[in-house]
Amino acid sequence: MKAWTIPQFGIEHLALADRPEPTPGPGQVVVRVRAASLNFRDLMMVQGHYDPRLVMGRVPCSDGAGEVAAIGSGVTTLKVGDRVIGSFFQNWLDGPINSSKTRGALGGDVDGMLQQFALLSEAAVVKAPAGWSFAQAATLPCAALTAFNALHGGLPGAGPAGAAIAPGDTILVQGTGGVSIFALQLAKAAGARVILTSSSDDKLAKAKAFGADGLINYKSTPDWHKPARDLSGGGPDLVVEVGGAGTLGKSISAVRTGGTIALIGVLAGIKGEVDTVSLLMRSITVRGINVGSVAMLRQLVRAMEASNSRPIIDREFPFSAASEAMNYMKSGAHFGKVVITVD
Ligand SMILES: NC(=O)c1ccc[n+]([C@@H]2O[C@H](COP(=O)([O-])OP(=O)(O)OC[C@H]3O[C@@H](n4cnc5c(N)ncnc54)[C@H](OP(=O)(O)O)[C@@H]3O)[C@@H](O)[C@H]2O)c1
């Protein structure tokens, strides 16, 4: 079978390798991958910015969908032909996060989905939403689940993804990448208002068409936290923070007193100073998000089916054009998700 691998860091070094088809052991399944979707993490992984100690030869990409091609002994919940998606974390099945559950992440600790056949744990494979294409299903494991966790995973003890936002809340979403557009869709489905920032007026117009209520160009309005406060009558209840160090200060200024910042990304920097006084004086909760569990992924699938909404795919690339797809994503031209079909 064919697999894209990382023999050395750099998108230009991605290599198409011949690998033996995997055989499932007890409790494992082999998935014939039909589509993989890209996340910013995959770019960082391939470029050596995520894990400098990554094992060379790793197959990239956490996200993929396909059909079950073979099952190992003891597998009872899946059968050959089932349309499925793999969970980002193969070992975080349920309950609160801990350090052992986050070992075994696809496309990092273990081989990912940018290959024709993937060996996965039965317990960490979820049936794809009914009626969805493989490309659509492949967008859920990382970006969508992260957005879902940010919006709905906030209350301990309220099930795998207890509600963190309520209908009528205002959510601030930064940019128009994969996580952010899912956050927009999920927030609208939950009856929330959404303020969205982007560097592009064209993308803001698109976001409006998908339901964004308030629009701010963060390039032409560098002090975007001010209109964000005005548009939300005193500050959003929740900020979906994907910029990281470069945006956190303004997110702290924007969010309402008593509000929450879901800290997700590092698009605008990793390290920086934090206004600790504002955090404590205004009782702001900063909640670190690390994707989500298999149980949350199952709940996300149910939520997407119930809301009838579909992922927004900007562009699909063929398997042979994996490097081109990564460079396209790196350019930041996309709105929503970038998918690679696996033939
Ligand atoms: N913690 C987790 O579990 C988790 C899970 C998934 C992703 N992440 C992280 O979340 C971030 C987003 O991931 P992704 O896959 O959605 O990335 P992506 O699709 O590549 O998002 C890129 C978009 O982000 C926007 N952006 C860039 N810099 C920005 C800034 N300074 N302010 C506001 N928006 C900015 C831009 O939108 P415009 O073009 O509209 O300006 C850009 O097109 C990454 O840092 C990723 O590592 C973390």
Structural write-up:
By secondary structure, the chain is of the alpha/beta class. The chain folds into two domains: 2-139 and 311-341, Medium-chain alcohol dehydrogenases, catalytic domain (Quinone Oxidoreductase, Chain A, domain 1); 146-288, NAD(P)-binding Rossmann-like Domain (Rossmann fold). Helix content is 27%, strand content 22%. The chain contains ten helices and 15 strands. Strands 3, 4, 5, 6, 7, 14 and 15 form a seven-stranded mixed β-sheet that branches. Helix 3 (140-152) packs across helix 4 (178-189). The chain is globular and about 55 Å long. The model has no long low-confidence stretch (mean pLDDT 96). The structure holds NADP nicotinamide-adenine-dinucleotide phosphate (NAP). Residues 39-41, 142-143, 146, 174-180, 197-200, 203, 218, 242-243, 246-247, 264-268, 289-291, 329, 332 line the site of NADP nicotinamide-adenine-dinucleotide phosphate. NADP nicotinamide-adenine-dinucleotide phosphate binds next to helix 1, helix 3, helix 4, strand 9 and helix 7.
Task: Summarize this structure briefly.
The chain has 343 residues and is an alpha/beta fold. Helix content is 27%, strand content 22%. The protein contains ten helices and 15 strands.
Annotation keywords:
about 350 residues; alpha/beta; Rossmann fold; seven-stranded mixed sheet; six-stranded parallel sheet; 10 helices; about 25% helix; binds NADP nicotinamide-adenine-dinucleotide phosphate
